[in-house]
Amino acid sequence: MNKALRFLYSFCAVGITAVACSYFTQSGIALFYGSLELPMLTPPNAVFQTVWSALYALTVISFYIVLGNDNVFQVQRAALLFLGQLFLQALWCYLFFYLGYFLFGLIVIGLLLWTVWSMIKQFMAINRAAGLLQYPYFIWLLFAAYLNVGVVYLNGNTLIL
Hints:
single chain
């Protein structure tokens, strides 16, 4: 795959996820997020936008690097994990922000953490830099899991409008 196609594939996969997640998140913010009791250390909404923009950029670069490897089996396995974590990320936003299913969101973020950790190991086997670029994402997901646990603890399992 040439460099332009690798970049386009990487950018579009992440971009589609980012747009879907943004839509679900903005819906929840508009409808109910402001009325939730939030755990300590919850940053202002603007921080989330800034962090996610940086994480998405790192993710595009990381996947682009992985797609340049010649070992087709390793790349296919890494791509499956990569696309799986994008799906789980969108699913989490849908469950948590769009539907207000906080406990289901927590279950999905657990699966997301496992998938991203597996993806990091696979990326590291292909290219160390590509794997290292995913650590900020993993750390942010740990923080997001803490916030999700706090929302469940403070507000219950499900949003009741």
